[in-house]
Amino acid sequence: MKQPSSEPIWTKDFILVVLVNLLIFTVFYSYITVLPVYVLDGMDGTESQAGFVTSVFLLAAIILRPLSGMIIDRFGQKRIAIISVTLFTFSAFLYVFIDNFYMLLALRFFQGIWFSIITTVTGAIAANIIPKNRRGEGLGYFVMSMNLAVVIGPFIGLNLIGKVSFSNLFLLFSIFALVSIFCCLPLKVKEVKGSTSFAFTLSNMFEKKVLPIAIVGLSISFWYSSVISFISVYAHSLNLMDASGYFFLCFAATMIISRPFTGRLFDRVGPGIVIYPSILLFSIGLLMLAFTSSSVMLLLSGAVIGLGYGTLLPCMQTIAIQSSPANRSGYAIATFFTFFDTGIATGSYILGILVTFSGFSNLYLLASIFALISLYLYPWSRRKSKSGANNPASAIH
């Protein structure tokens, strides 16, 4: 059993980068909640147009992810963090003036570019700040800020829609983004020297040592997309809309409560003892959704999914970083989230088609079964990573 490091995790710089991540993801999830309603009510758009405003944003993020590592290496982590957060904030203010659907799509794509780079560079900064022997625990806290944003963003959006104008809502989101700039400016970042070339080759855009765990991440995010994309519609079909607003609150509660314990267990014993039970819990939570008929069952499934999925994401991100050299942390995070975002985007589309034939209960039943494939993919990824390691520094510890 590994001995825990005495070095602190919650330093000033770590708190600042967590706040940047929390604010950016809060704005992101607020838009996901508000923009479809804005397209339908404020622009008299269609349901397909409402869905497309999220798809084009994710498309930009997926396209730019592979380039993020090179950009960060070329210009430095702090400089890119400040530039990307500033341009993300600038684009946030532009929503106040947009009243044309195609201009909105262009703005979404533009903002998606900077979102992709921000979320890559903040992960790399956090990984470099956290003591090496406490990365599982530290990155768990960092990723928890993303999961908290899943609750905060939609809560703000859903509670203010209809009470204030869309322009004032967009202005509020812009202020959140603006605060993230002030959190970013005092950050002290120890730059890790990497390549400064812009060679557009697969080996330079992706960190190949991360590919095995990235494939596991894609398989998890594909089925998780059934939750973030359809939970509100599913709850509506069950006449449980009042309870659905608390689904992600239960999700976040179990994730927060379990995070210190699972993070320390990851660091001291190893990832397997955390990941295998988490995959099972994720599957059980999806199974519970398939048989949900009451508010209690819906909220309980949210708690179980939060415990499973909320633990898996930081664990997989930690493995991605540990499996790559220190000077490739940006590439590692970019590679992992390229696959992860692709899983959510393709899952939302494919499962959206599937649900029209199967219904929601059968969809979640299917998701619960196929999520268990990760029980076989994870040990495969470990074997693949170890067999592909050329030196001790590249191995997963």
UniProtKB/TrEMBL annotation:
It is a multi-pass membrane protein. The keyword Membrane applies. Residues 14-386 form the Major facilitator superfamily (MFS) profile domain. It is found in: Cell membrane. Keywords: Membrane, Transmembrane, Transmembrane helix, Transport. It comes from the Bacteria. One of its GO terms (molecular function) is transmembrane transporter activity. The chain crosses the membrane at residues 14-38, 50-68, 80-98, 104-127, 139-157, 169-189, 210-231, 243-261, 273-291, 297-319, 331-357, 363-380. The keyword Transmembrane helix applies. GO terms for cellular component: plasma membrane. Pfam families: MFS_1 (PF07690). This is MFS transporter. It comes from Bacillus gobiensis.
